[in-house]
Design brief:
Blueprint: H1 3-21, H2 27-49, H3 54-69, H4 79-99, H5 104-124, H6 128-149, H7 157-183, H8 188-210, H9 216-231, H10 233-244, H11 247-262, H12 276-288, H13 293-296, H14 312-329, H15 345-355, H16 372-384, H17 387-407
Length: 410
Amino acid sequence: MPYTELFFFGFTLWLGAYLLARDSQKPTVQLTGWGLLAYALALAIQIIFDRSILLILLAPALLWIGAALHLLPEENQTRQTLIRTWAVVSIPLAILTLVNAWFAALVVLALMFCAGMVAKLAIRSQFKNTFALLAVIALFVTLSAGLLILPLNWIPLSWGMALLGFDLIFLGVTVTAWDAFDEGESIRAHLVRSLISAFYYSGTLVLIASFFSKDPTLLLTLITFGILTQTFSNALQSLLDKLTLSPQLNEERQSLRQAADALPLLSPLEPASVNEEQFTRLTRRALSHLGDLPKLATNPLTNLSSIKESNPLDRAHALKSLLIQSIQKLKPQSAAEFGTTDEWRYYNSLHFPYVLGLKPYTRRADYDSLNEASRAALDWFQTSVPERTLHNWQNTAAKLIAEDIRRAGG
């Protein structure tokens, strides 16, 4: 029985599912999660059928290339070009590799480029140490993936899978830590709790089943069931609540459940102890989570001295009110609800997307039911404000909000 391979399968399956269950909006996190799941699938095929499928082995490498490219700053002029090139070329390159395995060399060269790119980011990014570690791990991923997908046959398949598994696990953990730090969260307790819960449940199922059968397919099925049901337990409970409860009760239970699950992510960081750049970054994250109270409850800004509430959800509500008050201060002295002059741009960039929850570049089905100001704002964003410009305005506005709430007693 390949117990080592079962362990790698279970660990990468859990880590990939954990990254996806974080419901992050960052493509880097999502693509890394899918890459780990692709590796787990390749390992499952090897365990059951004692063979490998090159197309599935290519998936973790191709997905990591996309994840690395999304690490580039949005203001980087080549970012969108590189991402579009990756999206267009990946599938044809995978098909060409099936025709001639040596086309995989192009994938290895792209992985090397990504490792160098991440290393270059480490020089200028605020996440210098994290990106430096990520560059080293990316280099090891390149080496192990090259040994596995190139037709060199230098090492046995099982060894190559183990090397790639180690590298992908370290890669996934590092990306998780980067995402948590960027969101102002404390990840250790939440990560360990998820790991223990998933492996306790799946391990118990496997232990019971092993007394009756040593069939690898059965064990893999039980591991998959145990890990996925625990990692996505909130999503499953939400589905059950939708099927059995009234909409109002379901909404209340979902809010409480999400808040309880997010509590281990609350960082003990004191806002008064951080520098101006960190404070602005935390403010920017809080603004982006203005419509998501459970995520807002994990922001260290809930520890502001001006917020006196003790309940986590109450503190999140207080922080939300504080941010909305600061946004209102950006509004020009006018009776109008919306304007398009320069003095309106910072207010518009925060009020309509975050306070009202409008998506500037998505046409709403209920567009006609919106008030006149909201419809005018959506039309203005879509016709006159490029996405990059809006992003820059929001960053500048976040600095102004950060200065305001810090002066107010932060």
